[in-house]
Amino acid sequence: MSAGGTADNVVIGPGRLWVAPVGTTAPTSASAALDPAFWAVGYTEEGTTVSIELTTEEIMVAEELDPIRYVNSARSTTIALAMAEMTRKRLALASGLGGGYVDSAAALDALDVATEENTPVMLVWDSEETAAGNDQNRRWVFYSAYQTGAVSVSRQKAPAKSTLPVEFKAAKTTGNPLYRAFPNADGLV
User: Fold this and answer.
1) How many CA atoms lie within 13 A of 78 on its CB side?
2) What DSSP string describes 64-131?
3) Which of 47, 51, 171, 184 has the most CB atoms around its CB within 10 Å?
């Protein structure tokens, strides 16, 4: 007996994660070119994982043994990855300093930051390197995300490599959804 599924709806393959300061012009489709302020995170240990966790509460009434409904009481969206490229701007990103740093030989001193607050970034995940007009790309846009995870860097002999693990939490901003998913032409996300 056939499972009744559609093999072409099973998505595989890696993607790319892009970073820019919050407020950068967001893409409006899966095929639109990204604003030049976005930079690619580059190589990762195991790709990018997006987790959406819903906390629900059951609604009970005296006349029923079972809940009559469930309501959402909280939602948390996490974007997690381990960056395999150990550069200055990626360390700044992992340290919660934002996405506006560049790679250079200048020292990165977290104590020089004018604020003690975590600086959010805008994230875009693409299913493939996109060119304008590519109708098979799938894209997720996170308008504001804070680095909230622990950063633990191991230095070991080869073939082990050092990585910068990050865990972003998406936050709501005025005028934007928490995230926006743009399916490709076939409706795949």
Assistant:
1) 12
2) -SS-SEEEEEEEEEEEEEEE----HHHHHHHTT--S----SSS---GGG-S-SSPPPEEEEEESS---
3) 184
Q: What angle is formed at CA 133 by the lines to CA 132 and CA 137, rounded to 5 degrees?
A: 90
- Hey, what are 11's tokens? 């998505």
CB 167 within 8 Å of CB 152: no
Name the residue type at position 4: G
162 SS3 class: coil
Rounded to two decimals, the pTM is: 0.87
Tens of pLDDT, residues 7-38: 888 887 788 999 999 999 999 998 889 999 99
